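Sync notes, pocket subgroup
Present: LS, DG
LS reminded everyone that the earlier model was apo-only. Rerun requested with magnesium ion included. Inputs:
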Amino acid sequence: MAAVSESSRRCVIWFGKPGEREKVMLAADGWQIRAVLPQQSADIGMRGGDTVVGLIDFRTSSESELERIGRFTAEHQHMPLFAITPAISTAPLPCHPLLAACRQQFPHPPDLNGLLRELQALDAVPSPAAGEVLQTLLGQSDVMLNMRATLRKYAPVDLPVLITGETGTGKEVAAHALHQLSTRADRPFQAINCGAIPSTLVQSELFGHERGAFTGATSRRQGLFETAHTGTVFLDEVGDLPLDAQTSLLRVLQEGTIERVGSNQALRVNVRILAATHVDLEQAVEQGRFRRDLYYRLNVLRLSMPPLRKRGGDVDLLAHHFLRSFRGHHQIRARGYSSAARQAMERFNWPGNVRELLNRVQRAAITAEGELISCADLELSPAGTALEGSQLDSARIHAERETLLSCLQQSQFNVSACARLMRVSRVTIYRLCRKHQLTLDSLR
Ligand SMILES: Nc1ncnc2c1ncn2[C@@H]1O[C@H](COP(=O)(O)OP(=O)(O)O)[C@@H](O)[C@H]1O
Ligand SMILES: [Mg+2]
């Protein structure tokens, strides 16, 4: 993927007062907002390559204010203008020559996604890659929009980023995105899980070794930092790094050099270091398990991934996204979720975060009997607690019985119609009826 130039700025001059949601949504897409309130001077310090657009809020601008904006925009003829107008139902559309100069009007409340699409199209440095990259970190909650805005700011800065967050919150995805949105995007990206390598091998994995450096070192080997030269190194679970490796890492950060195990020759490496941790590094520092100086070096820029339970409607959005993409690759019956299942997902506290949601959705998609995934398929109770063991078995049996009964009712207890509805054979319907002690004759 080509490097995405983020050095040029994208700026919206908002004549009026943007709302909080408007601010975070634009920021997540990399737009700076310059709000120009009445009586403020609208001075745009623009550089070549910047994309600057004007957005006139006709909801709040007085006649005299519009006049002032008109004078300003006349001086900046090249600046594309957009309008936010009052809701058509609540007020007559303002009639103003300035409105005619606007490319498009967005009646209040504005369709922000539509607005963002229009802005994107005007971008002086189109960066479809940026949009694409951030598609891997879905979510429309304010916390996620803020996180994406921060990520965009950090990506082009050639400094370490410490990514914190519970397991499964997308730390690794964020590290990838930081790399792909950086000027190093077409250079190597090397990731390693510091907790997954035996402590005796860590130094050699990271920094390489010379032939004969230790028993079994039959040839010279490059380490992760050497293979990542000119690119990015991602140190996952950096808190698990043994103390001797921490010292070597500090040296990379301070001097930009490494030494292979068994050699005392310093080699120069140019890498950007991204690190992630799910443990509290401050605490590890207090307990002497993590070097304080290394902590300060890694923690220059900090990106914190919010837990899924704090992302509001994103749970539903992600659940549908994961089901849709699973359907794209597998022949499954499930097309959506029962309302109880959606509520249970909303209530559940997701200790494993997005990874757990993905796993539950995929498992449910395979086991679901009907078109709608139930709580039991997700292994959740309607109250939003995890079901295990015998609880789970009885919930599954209950859900199966409910699905069968509702399909039988819908098909007026006609076995063939019910079988078609459930997309199973007639034999299966008879078997399920016997299993759940439903006598068709007595139900009809
Ligand atoms: N916001 C998100 N949108 C879509 N998928 C996500 C999101 N966050 C995480 N994932 C997916 O969840 C899984 C766990 O993400 P990962 O980055 O490995 O988490 P962590 O490193 O924090 O444990 C991956 O399959 C990843 O693709
Ligand atoms: Mg991880």
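DG: The chain is about 40% helix and 15% strand.
LS: Residues 389-444 form a domain with the Arc Repressor Mutant, subunit A fold (CATH 1.10.10).
Action: DG to write up.
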